[in-house]
Specification:
Layout (H helix, E strand, L loop, with lengths): L1 H19 L7 E4 L5 H13 L2 E4 L19 H6 L20 E7 L7 H8 L7 E7 L6 H10 L4 E2 L3 E2 L5 H10 L1
Parallel strand pairs: 1-2, 1-3, 3-4, 4-5, 4-6
Helix pairs in contact: 2-6
């Protein structure tokens, strides 16, 4: 009887310890996507990495008119020409503390990340986390956007990012192996 009781207590102690120290071995793949391009890459990255997918969605969806970057009155133009602007996001990722590694994806607007990404970063504690940026773009490299993110959020452990235009499962797998 004592052996059974001792065994039960040991199992309970291990279970409680495991729950208290719960960290996900999976990475989080959090992304902003307005037209579906970055979303497609994020889905592939989550599949290849075994990560959990999380969309950073605006509280109010962007319309085609909102995304007309040539119109000075469009939502994206106004937001990106006032870099202190923080568009509201729909909800928060509740268990962000459970992730040590976060892949952070976004489209590049005006050679930087959209301000919606800043809203996400500032509403979640990413201090000390390994954050690996990835982006899609019609004409920019990822370099300036990463430089600006590092400057704005120096407490994050930024890892080398990658532009993933047209990325396939094979190319993402190769990228992850090279890390």
């Amino acid at each position: 009887m004592k052996k059974i009781l001792f065994t039960l207590l040991a199992v309970m102690a291990c279970s409680i310890t495991a729950l208290a120290q719960h960290k996900s071995n999976k990475p989080l793949v959090a992304y902003v996507s307005m037209t579906g391009t970055t979303a497609k890459v994020a889905h592939t990255l989550a599949t290849v990495s075994g990560g959990e997918l999380y969309e950073i969605a605006p509280e109010i969806r962007y319309t085609d008119a909102d995304l007309n970057w040539r119109n000075e009155k469009s939502r994206c133009y106004v937001e990106m020409h006032n870099l202190s602007f923080r568009p509201a996001i729909k909800g928060k990722k509740a268990n962000i503390a459970d992730y040590d590694t976060i892949y952070l994806g976004y489209p590049i607007w005006w050679n930087i990340a959209p301000t919606l990404l800043n809203t996400f970063i500032e509403s979640h504690n990413l201090k000390g986390k390994n954050v690996i940026p990835f982006a899609t773009s019609g004409g920019s490299t990822i370099d300036n956007s990463v430089k600006e993110l590092k400057k704005a959020y120096p407490d994050i452990k930024w890892q080398e990012g990658k532009l993933l235009n047209g990325a396939t499962e094979k190319s993402i797998r190769q990228w992850l192996k090279s890390k």
